[in-house]
């Protein structure tokens, strides 16, 4: 399903929820507990609203992470946004596990920090990095990156996925290999990767991790946003196949084509699919 379609459905549901909350004297902002995790949510935002609905935010991804993560392991949440998967992963790895969470936009990182503060036991397992992962620590950081999906029609939204770019004024450029050499105390077991077209930037700085650690990836494939960033599905796949990876459907875990043309046929324009990449 296209992101724009998901947003259209969420807008209709939000109108109903907002009307009901307004009658009760409540606004879109509030502190909510969902599945044992506490969030500070703004229901006018797509990600927040999906969390509020309970189990609706990237449900299949959350299930895959639950099946693939191991207790006491080190896992990475790259493109953490406000922390929905970050906090879920923290609960999965347990008190001796670690989560490294990466978010480049000032807007989403502030919300991530707030949600971590609301969950001290889980936050103690998480190290949050306000950075843009790319090929080297000396690289430049884009001025703005999509990290907000408002549930109201606004000017300036992305034509296909209806996101809004948010500033990255305080973010640093880092390579993943560099950060892991400084901060990792064990091999990376699992990576959730969803960075809206910047996947190749991340992977250019993660060649040692791919070669030596070979973690499992749970990731989004969206050819149209890769192309917007000057990359391609072919380039993205090239980081995995030579390192012994195969792709699998996130929901069914059935094998997917490794051939780029066949893989491309599975994804329509303006659409994405979520996959698991693991070493065979």
Would you spell out the secondary-structure blueprint of this structure?
Elements: H1 3-23, E1 29-34, E2 37-42, H2 46-53, H3 59-68, E3 74-78, H4 84-93, E4 98-102, H5 106-117, H6 120-123, E5 126-129, E6 131-133, E7 144-148, E8 164-167, E9 172-174, H7 176-183, E10 188-193, H8 199-204, H9 207-213, E11 216-221, H10 223-228, H11 233-238, E12 245-249, H12 260-264, E13 273-279
Parallel strand pairs: 3-4, 3-10, 4-5, 6-9, 10-11
Antiparallel strand pairs: 1-2, 7-8, 11-13, 12-13
Quick recap:
It is built from twelve helices and 13 strands. The two termini are 29 Å apart.
Q: Can you walk me through this structure?
A:
- The chain contains twelve helices and 13 strands.
- It is globular, with a radius of gyration of 18 Å.
- A hairpin with a 2-residue loop joins strand 1 and strand 2.
- With 280 residues, the chain is of the alpha/beta class.
- It has a seven-stranded mixed sheet with strand order 5-4-3-10-11-13-12, with helices on one face. The chain has a two-stranded antiparallel sheet with strand order 1-2. Strands 6-9 form a two-stranded parallel sheet.
- It starts with a helix and ends with a strand.
SSE order, as H and E?
A: HEEHHEHEHHEEEEEHEHHEHHEHE
Subunit arrangement of the protein: single chain
Number of helical regions: 12
Shape: globular
**Regions with pLDDT < 50 over 5+ consecutive residues?**
none
Strand segment count:
13
Biggest sheet strand order reads: 5-4-3-10-11-13-12
Helix content: 25-40%
Q: Which value, in Å, is the CA radius of gyration?
A: 18 Å
Distance from N terminus to C terminus (CA atoms, Å) equals: 29 Å
Sheet/helix structural class: alpha/beta
How many strands, what sense, and barrel or not for the largest sheet?
Answer: 7 strands, mixed
| Beta-strand fraction estimate | 15-25%
Mean pLDDT: 96
């Amino acid at each position: 399903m296209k992101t724009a379609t998901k947003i259209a459905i969420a807008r209709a549901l939000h109108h109903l929820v907002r009307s009901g909350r307004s009658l009760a004297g409540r606004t879109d902002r509030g502190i909510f507990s969902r599945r044992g995790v506490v969030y500070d949510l703004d229901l006018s935002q797509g990600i927040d609203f999906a969390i509020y609905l309970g189990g609706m935010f990237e449900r299949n991804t959350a299930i895959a992470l639950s099946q693939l993560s191991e207790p006491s392991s080190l896992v990475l949440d790259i493109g953490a946004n406000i922390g929905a998967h970050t906090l879920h992963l923290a609960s999965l790895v347990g008190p001796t596990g670690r989560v490294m969470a990466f978010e480049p936009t000032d807007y989403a990182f502030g919300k991530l920090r707030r949600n971590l503060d609301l969950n001290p036991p889980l936050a103690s397992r998480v190290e949050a990095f306000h950075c843009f992962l790319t090929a080297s620590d000396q690289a430049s950081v884009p001025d703005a990156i999509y990290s907000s999906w408002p549930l109201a029609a606004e000017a300036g939204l992305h034509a296909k996925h209806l996101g809004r770019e948010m500033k990255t004024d305080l973010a640093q450029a880092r390579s993943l290999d560099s950060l892991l050499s400084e901060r990792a105390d064990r091999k990376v077991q699992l990576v959730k990767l969803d960075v809206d077209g910047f996947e190749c930037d991340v992977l250019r700085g993660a060649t040692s991790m791919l070669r030596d650690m070979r973690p499992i990836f749970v990731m989004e494939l969206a050819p149209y946003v890769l192309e917007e960033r000057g990359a391609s599905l072919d380039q993205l796949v090239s980081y995995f196949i030579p390192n012994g990876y195969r792709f699998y459907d996130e929901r069914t875990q059935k094998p997917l084509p490794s051939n780029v043309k066949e893989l491309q046929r599975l994804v329509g324009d303006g659409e994405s699919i979520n996959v698991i990449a693991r070493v065979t």
